[in-house]
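Example record used in the benchmark description.
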Amino acid sequence: MTGWFCPFVQRAWTVLEEKKIPYEYIEVNPYHKPESLLKLNPRGLVPTLQYNNKPLYESTVICEFLEDAYPDHGPKLLPGDVYDRARTRIWTDFCTSRIIPAFHRFLQFQPMDDKDGLKQAQQEFLSKLKEFAKEMDKTGPFFLGSEPSLIDFVVAPWVMRLWVFDYYKGGLGLPVPGEESGEDAEIWKRFRKWQHALEQRPSIKNTTSETEKYLSIYRRYADNTAQSELAKATRSGKGVP
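Model output (structure tokens):
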């Protein structure tokens, strides 16, 4: 069960598309939770997956489950090498525990006339992106190399929504190509190559709606009036619930 606009839903949805796993898509309104959803997931959160009449939830858990349950469906989300697999989980967790909270602190920052506070929120988010990009494979185009992995799919929905900062917060603030120097130039070049690879990946493009459809939803986040569990957690100074 899903909500089309939810980035956590897009994580699992993209993996289903990428691996070409047959599925039935059931749209629900997570703000008006139907009984059918609550029976499967008492918290009423999306995505919720039903497999052999048994429920699963939590987006990253679902992605890893799909990797294990459908081993013949590529690409592999987790490397075979045990060290590389552990490193994948480290950076997957970094996306959820560091990048996404910083994304929302920047997006939900108020008041807008507090320019210093807004700049600080922007720089915090950019510092997390830079720390992440520094660890990317130097050749790419994906985080671990030539093929996408769990890391890419876990953070891709937020990468596909970076435009919200241009609409509502005066810009993301990424360095302009050619204006960086030294190590920073290579790091941001790598980031832009990775971002482009995600944007062109069919499974990601096919699960992303047109910008116009997201505008009213992200306006509420930008105004800090959104009522999602993540928005409320951000307002209270917490991480991803």
